[in-house]
Design a protein that fits this description.
One of its GO terms (molecular function) is antioxidant activity. The chain is of the alpha/beta class and 377 residues long. Helix content is 35%, strand content 18%.
């Protein structure tokens, strides 16, 4: 190979790597420096409007907070973000929140503290549920704004003066789940509103890393890995099942009764598998109970295998249907599908006497598990 050919070869390779970076190479961004001008943006908001810097031109100060739906740290700060907006909007401070994450780059097991992902539609739900009275913008499609600002984690605060020069960047305060000792963003606001220099212009951030689009492949790889897990179906007696569901545990148990001949039941299994993958790193487990006859065990196991349901799966060795009803929940009237959430004490805390709404069920699960580390502990 001649020297020219060799150089040409590596030039082509470099171009290909630049255009299609391998997933193992993490996207590196540089956080905006103090004194830098605010990068402009044109982003859709959950209220149906499109926003840019000019929409906040009348504000004395502009606070841009990058946050998201799924991150437990970001969730822990939502009340404080709303409080900042309430307390400073009449003092000439405009606050805007931006979600930097590519929703397709978020793994299911990163959603363990949330009933919502980081899609634009779910952002609308989150804003409505939490009563956001400030713009909540979506940058997950191109992430150009997030790269320009150099977002490291959620939440990440950028405070700009009247000339839209960066005067503070970092955290909201020094603790997400305990009373903070250092109110860094608030201190910066007060100093700028008083015409002073910001004493501490930069602080470290703490939270979930930005989900750049180069993590999409990792998210897909995790799905492929989980799909390789074995879906095992075990036979159990009514007495054993009743004990399994009512005894004290260190976990919440989501129990779903289904059958191969019940189309809505089979249709729900994919959503149940998603919940299993989202919440199983927390004190949670999914238990499915097949109402099929023992003679149909192979068919039931085949369905579970096709749906990649690697949860705890039982087939009841019962003499009568009443044995099944009593073993699962005496309050069950018999219709399929049937779903219950059982707390660690063995008490049913939620019942669904029909097909479930996946979004509502995930919300129930998260409300019982707790959305933040503080609630969990």
């Amino acid at each position: 190979m001649t020297r020219c050919t060799y150089l040409a070869h590596w030039l082509v390779l470099a171009i290909l790597l630049f255009a299609n970076p391998p997933s193992s190479i993490a996207l590196e961004v540089e956080t905006l420096k103090i004194g830098a001008a605010a990068p402009d943006f044109e982003l859709p908001g959950v209220d149906g409007k499109t926003y840019s810097l000019s929409d906040f031109a009348d504000a004395k100060l502009l606070m841009v907070i990058f946050t998201c739906n799924h991150c437990p740290t970001a969730q822990a700060y939502e009340a404080r973000i709303k409080q900042l907006n309430d307390q400073y909007q009449d003092r000439g401070v405009a606050l805007v929140a931006i979600s930097p994450n590519d929703p397709l780059a978020v793994r299911l097991d990163e959603l363990g503290y949330s009933d919502l992902n980081d899609s634009f539609e779910d952002m609308k739900t989150r804003a409505q549920d939490e009563g956001f009275e400030f713009p909540y913008l979506y940058d997950g499609e191109t992430q150009e704004t997030s790269r320009a600002y150099g977002v490291r984690a959620t939440p990440h605060v950028y405070l700009f003066d009247a000339e839209r020069k960066l005067r503070y960047v970092g955290r909201i305060d020094d603790n997400d789940v305990k009373p903070p000792a250092s109110h860094d963003a608030r201190n910066a606001l007060e100093e700028l509103l008083s015409g002073k220099e910001v004493t501490v212009p930069t602080t470290r951030v703490f939270g979930c890393s930005t989900k750049w689009s180069d993590k999409r492949e990792s998210a897909q790889e995790s799905l492929a890995q989980w799909n390789q897990e074995e879906a095992e179906l075990k036979t159990i007696t009514p007495e054993e099942l009743h004990t399994r569901l009512t005894q004290k545990s260190d976990k919440y148990r989501l129990v779903n009764v289904w059958a191969t001949w019940c189309a809505p039941c089979v249709g729900e299994l994919e959503e149940l598998v998603t919940m299993h993958r989202m919440y199983r790193k927390r004190p949670f487990e999914l238990i499915t109970v097949s109402a099929d006859e023992l003679s149909n065990a192979k068919a039931a196991e085949k369905v579970l295998d096709e749906k990649h349901c690697s949860a705890t799966n039982y087939l009841l060795d019962a003499q009568t249907r009443d044995d099944l009803f009593e073993a699962v929940d005496p309050a069950w009237q018999g219709a399929l599908p049937y779903t219950v959430l059982i707390d660690p004490d063995g008490t049913v805390v939620h019942r669904i006497h029909d097909s479930f709404d996946a979004a509502k069920l995930k919300r129930v699960i998260v409300e019982h598990l707790g959305r933040t580390y503080a609630e969990q502990n």
